[in-house]
Amino acid sequence: MRRPTFDLDVLRTFVTGVEFNSFAKAADRLNRSTSAVSAQLKKLEEQIGAPVLSKSGRGLVLTPVGESLLSQARQLLELNDSIFQTLHESQTAATVRLGLQEDFGEHFLSDILRRYVQMYPRVSLEVRIARNTELFALIDSGGLDLALTWDTGHKSPYATRLGETQMHWIGPRDTPSLNRDVDSPLPLILFDAPCVLRSAATQALDEARIPWRIALTSPSVGGIWAAVAAGLGVTLRTRIGLPGHLSVIAGLPTLPTLGYALYRGAEHLAPATRQLAALIQTRLEEQAFSITAGASV
What we know:
Keywords: DNA-binding, Transcription, Transcription regulation. This protein is 46% helix and 23% strand.
């Protein structure tokens, strides 16, 4: 059976009349004649098959059907108005400033950008790939709208912890387990301090009484990956952004998980920024599932 479809203009007239407690005022507000409003109400009752208003003295009151319709009509109108507002905003020029910790920027950013520009073709993106410390400073000073970072406990009223991922020792793919001389310090390839992963690596080795040395420091994740691939040492990272020619290695202390969080520059975000935040969260959920599935195979 073909279901009837509500006319949103009719529902808007009905809701406006109830809210003004006067359909004459509703007619004036909606730039319609009172006869046109009366015709719309008649059409609505015919479509429903029951009266939505009844006389009470010199005025009108909602019937039980009218009360039920009022609540749901408001929801339909809010959804309709929200859709048009979102479509309008997607065509409005704006700038969104996004900061990413480098692990996320390597392989995560391109997919986010592709999805986002399809929804907001006129929005300009300013992307900053940087270390946690720099991103926190930019968020706190208003220099970024959003920042995706490792969760190191930085205090902010506008932070949302999105998840966590396992930390791993990383080496060349053709060396899945570590055969090292127990008398020689373990060569490490790390960021310079301060770095949450550097601290986790050295603390774990110290607790396990494994001697270590810093073989190389790099200001970028790309530099770390290159040095590990060259056999200069091992590093501590996560599977996020892990290149195919490197892999998790065994034989070193087990480490805990590392959280990641999305920081906002303000409590209330512009719609375009809010949509980007939602896309980031969705993409991270997809990636977390992919990593978990891959690790369990």
